[in-house]
Amino acid sequence: MSFIVAIDGPAAAGKGTVSKAVADRFGFAHLDTGLLYRVVGRVALEKIGPALDEAAVIALATQVDIADLERDDLRTAAVAQAASKVAVIPEVREALVVFQREFAARSGGAVLDGRDIGTVICPNADVKLFVTASAEIRAERRFKELAARGEETDFETVLEDVKARDARDSERDVAPLAAASDAVVLDTSEMSIEAAIAAAIEAVDTARA
Ligand code: CDP
C-alpha cells in the first residue's frame, strides 16, 4: 500500500532534515525533489553555459539520468540558482512529473520534499507539511552548511541568494512555491528542528491511525 508524505517549503527551511527523520522513523523511501532540478541546473551549466538557453535546457530535462542524483557537486550556491532558473520553465517541470509520481506511489510509503508536492505532484498525499522559517534564519543555516562544506561565501551573499530564489520560486506561473490549503505549517524560526520532527511524526501517526 502506498502512503505519501508531502513536505514543501522555501529554501533551507529544514525540509530535508524533517523528511529524512520521517522516512527513517516509518521506513519510508525519501526523494529530495530539489535534487532533480539541481541535476538539470548542474548539467545545463556544464553543457549549455550560464545563459541557460531555454530550448536546450528542456532537451536536457527530458533526458535526466537518475544516477546523477548521487553527484556530490549539486549543493553549491551556483547550482541552487541555476536550479531555480530552470524550474521556472513549464516543460522542465513537466519532464520531471512522472518520475516523482511513480516514486510517490511505491508500496511501503514515500516522503517527497520540494516546493509543489502537496499542491501539484501529489495533491492527494496522506500527509502534507509546509516547513518554513524567516529568510534570515534560513540564510544563517545555509551559510553554516556551505561554510562547513568549504564553499567560500558570506552571510549577506547567502541571504541575497535565498531571497532571490524565494522570489523566483513564489512568483513563477507554473507550480509556484505555496502551502497547500490542507497542509500543516511548521514555522521552524519559532520551533527547534527536533520539535518540527516530532510534529511531523505526530501528523503521520494521526493519518495512519
Ligand atoms: O535545499 P534547498 O531548499 O535550498 O533547495 P532545493 O530543494 O534543493 O531546490 C532547489 C531549487 O529547485 C528551488 O529553489 C526551486 O526553484 C526548485 N524546486 C522546484 O521548483 N520544485 C521542487 N519540487 C523542488 C525544487
Strand content: 5-15%
- Strand adjacency order, main sheet: 2-3-1-4-5
Give me the strand/helix succession: EHEHHHHHEHEHHEH
- SS element count, helices: 10
What is the CATH C-level name? Alpha Beta
How far the N terminus sits from the C terminus, by CA atoms, comes to 15 Å
Pick out the low-confidence regions.
Answer: none
The value of Rg in angstroms is 16 Å
The share of residues in helices is 40-55%
CATH architectural category? 3-Layer(aba) Sandwich
Bound molecules: cytidine-5'-diphosphate
Mean pLDDT equals 97
Strand segment tally: 5
Largest sheet: 5 strands, parallel
Q: Kindly give the count of domains.
A: 1
- The CATH H-level superfamily is P-loop containing nucleotide triphosphate hydrolases
Shape: globular
Helix vs. strand class = alpha/beta
CATH topology: Rossmann fold
